[in-house]
Amino acid sequence: MLTLISMSLMRFFAPILTSFFLLGSVWATGVDEIFSTDPDHQKNLQKYVQVQQRIMDNYFDVADLNELYQYSIKSMVEALNDSAFSGMNTPLDTTFTGQTPVLDLRESLTRFKSAYEYLLASYPEQDGSKLTEEAIRGMMSLLDPHSVYIEPDDSERIEEQFAGKFQGIGIQFNIIGDTITVVTAISGGPSDKLGIRSGDRIIAIDDSSAVGFTNEDVIKRLRGEKGSTVNVTIIRPGANRALEFTISRDDIPLYTVDTHYMLDDQTGYVKVNRFAATTHEEFMTSIQDLTNKGMKRLVLDLQNNPGGYLSQAIAIAEEFFPRGTELVGTISRHYRFTSSYDSRRDGELAEIPVIVLVNEGSASASEIVSGAIQDHDRGIVVGKRTFGKGLVQQQYPLVDESNIRVTISRYYTPSGRVIQKPFVNGREEYAHEIIEREHDASLDAVEFMDHVPDSLVFRTKAGRKVYGGGGIVPDFFVKEDTTLSGYLFNFMVANQIDFDFVRSYLDANGSEFREVWRGDFDRFRTEFDWAPEQRVEFITRLEEAGLIINNTLTDPEVKNDTLSIPASYLEETAWMSYGRMKAELARQVWGSAYFYPVINDYFGDTIKQAMELWDAVDNLERYALAQKTKREAEGKAVLQ
């Protein structure tokens, strides 16, 4: 996702005022008394016209109002799931050949209102709000795959994710056996300050039992306004009585930098999971810490980063370049959404060698950052071809606290390439395209490049070929290890056995473990291993969950809720599960940031291969400098 977060008051209020005017003019002409006085129906009609107006006023491409109207009606009818229903010769009939096309918003609203009223009169049990939502989804389906409708319940959650904070008590939790179990208290948060810790079981909230709560129940009861309080009753393993806490809710940060640490004595590593309001601030805090530890070069991990705010992508890209460097541009049929963004100052990392890690899950803002670094020959991009999302969205609120996200422009990288992949064959095929790619990153890139037309071939500042129309093609590819499959690993995760096993281990051994390891995480990474008896217990838990060890098999078999494997497969792949559990142990003892170093120790093939490529970074720097010197010399010769 890539969104703009600046919006003038005029752009915000003008569509609202216009929609009120349109509704007022329709109602003034005389309407059915039932619908004109029902506030829900009024709100639904207002919502409908708000959506149409935002699309017509802001969509980056030309939108056909008549087509939007027709698809809204069709989607409402399809939502009925009544094969016997026929809308012929009714306000729901969009096929009547003599019907004039919808040419303006007023006509669209008038016709939609007639169809909406007819449908509810015919099906009084139907929910008008749900029908309106289906009408909106029908209109949005005509647009690009990233223009979407967001329901009210989802809007708040999404807003929190990209605001970078929420208000609550500050814990990560899981539900184990119907009981809320604290995975970790967020550092510096209200729960952490009170001494609530990993492994605590919350059995009551405000004197009411919390046993049997769902994740949604927990969130509703524990989140709340900053300064408000909530009482929780906790059972702590090893304690002889229940513990009572009164927690004052506060702002809780949602971190977008998963972790940062030194890979060796000169290489820093930063993993960014998305681009939200606080990402640049978090990133620079991490950079300062790594610099203090001796960082001379950086690995920036944007794998599986789906993007986020355009402003944050620009702010982070800016850190790698001198003042005046072009970072990204946007183009739209609307002048106000067409712009070019250059670095406004000398970045703090402008002299630091950099490698950017990407894969098929890297999209949008991730592609802006990696594209700028690649186009300016500033560093190398390593991994797999990225997703290919080159569109920018603006989010618009609707009358009922739902939202729509509308694509307002395309973006292009400094070389001029638009990296958006095609979406002409529908949203489903668009979403599944990355699944159908070659597993071998180099073969996927070769296949992609072989089919790229000359019009989508561009050049970096130093003259290297780069490609548009389907994501960022890395400079170096990392081949996926297909020698070992993840059947056992996936079975473990799906049944939550890793978390449950670690939680039980800490319940029994937590004090002893912390005494031995808590003060030396680096030693834990290199020396800790699961004892033989713990491995036996782990296999027992797998078998209780449905694992069958069958030596008559040659390959794993999945059937219903069971997994059958030969013993040889268990021996070959169990290390993956033990590694994941070790990482989960680190998370529950030290916090979430410590999960990733351990995971990377076991599964970080891309990082390991990237660390072999620093000579390539040096060579690119020398090559780019030589090409710059050559261009300057040629320019002087022309002037003379």
What is shown here, in short?
The protein is of the alpha/beta class and 640 residues long. It contains 22 helices and 26 strands.
Properties at a glance:
single chain, 7-stranded mixed sheet, 4 domains, alpha/beta, 2-enoyl-CoA Hydratase, Chain A, domain 1
What does this structure look like?
With 640 residues, the protein is of the alpha/beta class. It has four domains: 2-58 and 64-142, no CATH class; 165-253, Pdz3 Domain, CATH 2.30.42.10; 257-477, 2-enoyl-CoA Hydratase, Chain A, domain 1; 487-603, no CATH class. β4 (171-176) and β5 (179-185) form a beta hairpin. α3 (39-58) packs antiparallel against α5 (105-122).
SSE blueprint and pairings:
Blueprint: E1 2-4, H1 9-28, H2 33-37, H3 39-58, H4 65-79, H5 105-122, H6 128-140, E2 148-150, H7 152-163, E3 165-168, E4 171-176, E5 179-185, H8 190-194, E6 201-205, E7 208-209, H9 215-222, E8 229-235, E9 243-248, E10 250-253, E11 257-262, E12 267-272, H10 279-292, E13 297-301, E14 308-309, H11 310-318, E15 326-331, E16 339-342, E17 354-358, H12 365-375, E18 380-383, E19 391-397, E20 403-412, H13 427-432, H14 441-450, E21 457-459, E22 465-467, E23 476-477, H15 487-494, H16 497-517, H17 521-527, H18 532-545, E24 547-549, E25 557-559, E26 562-565, H19 567-590, H20 595-603, H21 605-610, H22 614-639
Parallel strand pairs: 1-14, 1-19, 12-13, 13-17, 17-18, 18-23, 24-26
Antiparallel strand pairs: 2-20, 3-10, 4-5, 5-6, 6-7, 6-8, 8-9, 11-12, 15-16, 15-20, 19-20, 21-22, 25-26
Helix pairs in contact: 1-3, 1-5, 3-5, 3-6, 4-5, 4-6, 11-12, 16-19, 19-20
